[in-house]
């Protein structure tokens, strides 16, 4: 073997060793890296506490917090598990949590030149992604820790997709968040009611519609979520016979105008 061929073989050996080290390092990236990224992206309002495993396969405790510097935090029971891989031209994140997720929903992230697509796919056979205790929201701080809600939140999203193009996100498809048998410590009523918040995506932005399904506290409203931000207008009223029990809560929900409480965001 000539000196040139020996040198070439050594260079290839070093290149192979370096590539192996890089791939090995990527394969063993700790789950804490993912937890730190989620915390930064959400302003520390969503935390993956006690993260274990790797970025590609791990678990953590899902926590909602009031944000950077906040002392309020509420964790879900059990652990949220994930596996991240590549399938059919997209990164695919599979999630599992016994308390709250139905089956194994998937989050598919498809990269592209100048645009990205994020699609949420519920487990096969049901449009329901999962359900969570309403008390979890109190971890976000004001006003949720004042309301101290009880009940259940259920998310259904049969074909929800987010598209990023030219620096703007656009939602396609529908998502429905149901608040079932909601209660609050600010009212003596055992149950305030059940409600539906529907999000409908379109070219002009996302349309929001709030409606009451049942209950003494009646909520309604409409709004839009687009590049200009979130704008929502609604109102809260009490059913006949429940006004005294709901008076304090109506004062907190929005600006009082007679028997109505006006809700304005944006």
TrEMBL record:
TM regions (residue ranges): 12-35
Cellular component GO terms, alphabetical: plasma membrane; type II protein secretion system complex
Pfam entry (one): T2SSN
Subcellular location: Cell inner membrane
Keyword list, A-Z: Cell inner membrane, Cell membrane, Membrane, Protein transport, Transmembrane, Transmembrane helix, Transport
GO BP of this protein: protein secretion by the type II secretion system
Family: Belongs to the GSP N family.
Protein name per UniProt: Type II secretion system protein N
């Amino acid at each position: 073997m000539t000196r040139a061929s020996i040198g070439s073989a050594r260079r290839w050996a070093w290149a192979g060793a370096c590539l192996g080290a890089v791939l090995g390092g990527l394969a063993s990236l700790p789950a804490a890296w993912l937890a730190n990224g989620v915390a930064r992206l959400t302003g520390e309002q969503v935390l993956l506490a006690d993260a274990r495993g790797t970025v590609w396969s791990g678990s953590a405790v899902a926590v909602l917090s009031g944000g950077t510097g906040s002392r309020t935090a509420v964790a879900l029971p059990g652990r949220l598990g994930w596996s991240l891989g590549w399938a059919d031209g997209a990164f695919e994140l599979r999630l599992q949590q016994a308390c709250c997720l139905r089956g194994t929903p998937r989050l598919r992230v498809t990269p592209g030149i100048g645009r990205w697509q994020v699609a949420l796919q519920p487990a096969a056979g049901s449009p329901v992604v999962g359900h969570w205790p309403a008390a979890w929201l109190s971890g976000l701080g004001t006003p949720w820790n004042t309301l101290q809600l009880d009940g259940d939140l259920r998310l259904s999203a049969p074909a929800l997709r987010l598209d990023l193009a030219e620096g703007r996100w656009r939602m396609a498809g529908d998502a429905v968040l149901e608040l079932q048998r909601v209660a609050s410590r600010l009212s003596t009523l055992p149950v305030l009611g059940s409600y539906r918040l529907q999000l409908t995506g379109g070219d002009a932005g996302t349309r929001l519609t709030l409606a009451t399904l049942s209950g003494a506290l009646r909520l309604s409203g409409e709004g839009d979520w687009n590049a200009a931000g979130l704008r929502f207008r609604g109102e809260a009223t009490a059913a006949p016979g429940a006004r005294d029990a709901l008076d304090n809560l109506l004062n907190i929900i929005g600006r009082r105008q007679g028997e109505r409480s006006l809700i304005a965001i944006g």
